[in-house]
Amino acid sequence: MAQVQLEHISKVFGEGADATTAVDDVSLTIDDHEFMILLGPSGCGKSTLLRMVAGLEDPTSGDLLIDGLRVNDVEPKLRDVAMVFQSYALYPHKTVQRNIEFPLKVRGVSKAERAKEAERAAEVLGLTDYLRRKPGQLSGGQRQRVALARAIVRRPAVFLMDEPLSNLDAKLRGDTRAELVDLHRRLNSTFIYVTHDQVEAMTMGTRVAVINKGRIEQVGSPQEVYDAPASTFVAQFIGTPPMNLLPPGMIGASDVQIGVRPEHLRVDPSGTITGSVRQLEHLGHEVLLLAEGDGGLHLTARIAPHDQVPGVGDVVRFTADERFLHRFDAATGVRLP
Amino acid sequence: MKRRLRDVPGAVAMLLPSMLLLAVWTVYPLVKAFINGTKSCDSTGTRCTDVGWQQYSNVWSSREFQDALAVSLKLALMTVPTGLILGVGLAVLADKHLRGIGFFRTVFSSTVATSVAVASLVWVVLLQPEIGVLSDLFSGWIPSLKNPGLLRDPGTALPAVALSSVWANLGFTFIVVTAGLQSIPRDLYESAYVDGASSWRRFTNVTLPMLTPSLLFIVVVLTTRALQAYGEIALLTQGGPNPEKSTTTIPYLIYGENSLIRNNLGLKSAAAVLLFLVSLVFAVVQYRGFEKRVQYAR
Question: Is B209 on the interface with A (CB under 8 A)?
């Protein structure tokens, strides 16, 4: 079991004029037993960060510590980490059993021991009936489990997962999310999980690090990040539909931008925000009301389906409780106290 | 079913051009060769008499054919494994993201654009006992380079031909293996690396198994090329040195300038058909033998 520390880690690809900074001065401590989510849009540097922990990329600067030991120059096999790839990276010519055994085989574990451990890992993931099959004969979900079994078989201190659910269909993704949380609880080890899917981040992580353009915008529990986003980027990245940002000056001072979540907007004839309804999305349990107003105002409000739902084209007034308003610096997007 | 029938005229129209080409240039000559193999003709090849299928077994069991078959098989044994190992080795070496690697890739694949005639001439000059570069450089270690010369020594003539043949085919092997290597997902290597596999283990557990389709293709093509070797023999050794006929392969027995049967259309056809059957058997055995081990990516 292990703690992972990133201290002022940067990664620059290319040289001179072609240089691209993928990770920019990131410091983050991932505690023992934690399920840490690295969340961000594609190209934000989250996978590069994970690959540096795995040893597949070298940091350009900064220190990477596992259990207090600097591992910048340590080969992956000595870092005691296991990685699950987005593509699963299963060996197509090996059976499921051989795939799962592979990390043990390269470590010189005896054949009998290997078989025992592989069976144990297969049992944890419900793969016992598929041990003799090849990956090509399995469904996407089963392959994903083989990749997980191969990761858990040698009981590493840290699990690294790079968008492991993104190739699964929506139903399976939902089921597997719950299973991964369960697996984390049973293995009681450190998970670092990369995703661009905020639902995965909200439902699985003990903490979430929201990353944008190579920098960490905010680290906190999913609820903290949702309730008190540190920047307009985080505010808009987490939550479906995203937080409404009102044009600066519409409420309060002109250098303050107000944000309000769709569920906190109420239709109220005495409200201060005015917009005309452009579209209604009936989702069954709720209605999403999309409205437009002066000054580039775009709003989304969640309303109960049985309330008086306005029609398209109606001019509607909205209000929100003071305690649900988020204040950001209009210039920098940083949250104001 | 109805729809299938309706598609037939269109399908035939689409296939007709290639079917015609195949019929005229492949099927007809093949059938004609089979039939010619049952005939005995005079030197002009015009007056032929039917001697029957017996001629095939006569040719097969003849001393000349058996000797040539042995030479052809030896040539295949010398060239196929060597060519395969060298081609894979070079391709793996060049499969790196290094500055200037393109230059080496070009050099390694260049023999693909070199005709058998040019390749053989290069080796004639290199191996020439009096003025050849190789005999000047290495005759201290290998005296037969100078006297009588590798191509003139019955013991070394065939290996020397094989050397030129391996060199000439290296570009082809290199290109096919390089293409195969580039189709292997990088994730597989990275996963093996994180799991602690050494570079040799990554080669044996990822590279080689993932290359099997390319390797099978190369083995079949190189074997067929070795069995059909003619140009390099004609230019390097003319089937000699004689009287051992150390490098008289089956194709050289059929067409060669010094060949006994070059004026006998019937015997030539019979030998050619037998060579076709031998190549076919090899190809089938190779496909069958490797089929189960070949991993086509899924």
Answer: yes
Using an 8 Å CB-CB cutoff, list residues of chain A that contact chain B: 54-56, 76-77, 81-83, 85-87, 89, 91-94, 102-103, 106-107, 135-136, 150
pLDDT digits 0-9 by tens, B183-216? 999 999 999 999 988 989 999 999 999 998 899 9
Q: Cβ contacts (< 8 Å) between B196 and chain A: which residues?
A: 76-77, 103, 106-107
Q: Which residues of B touch A54 (CB under 8 A)?
A: 194
Q: What is the CATH class of A242-329?
A: mainly beta
Query: Is residue B1 pLDDT above 80, yes or no?
Result: no
Using CB atoms, pick whichever of A83, A91, A103 lies closest to residue B206. Answer: A91
Please list the residue range(s) of chain A that carry CATH number 3.40.50.300.
4-234
**Chain A residues touching residue B195 (CB < 8 angstroms):** 77, 82, 102-103, 106, 150
H and E: helices and strands count for chain A = 8, 18
pLDDT in tens, B114-173: 888 888 888 888 877 777 777 777 776 776 766 776 677 777 888 888 988 899 899 999
- CATH number for A4-234 (one of 3.30.70.60, 3.40.50.2300, 3.40.50.300, 3.40.50.1820): it is 3.40.50.300
In three state form, how does the secondary structure of B39-99 look? EEECCCCCCEEECCCHHHHHHHHCHHHHHHHHHHHHHHHHHHHHHHHHHHHHHHHHCCCCC
Task: Map out the domains of chain B as residue ranges.
Answer: 62-291
Amino acid identity at B293:
R
Is B62-291 a CATH 1.10.8.60 domain? no
Give me the residue label for tokens 């539909």: A241
Short-list B223, B285, B232, B298, CA closest to B73: B223
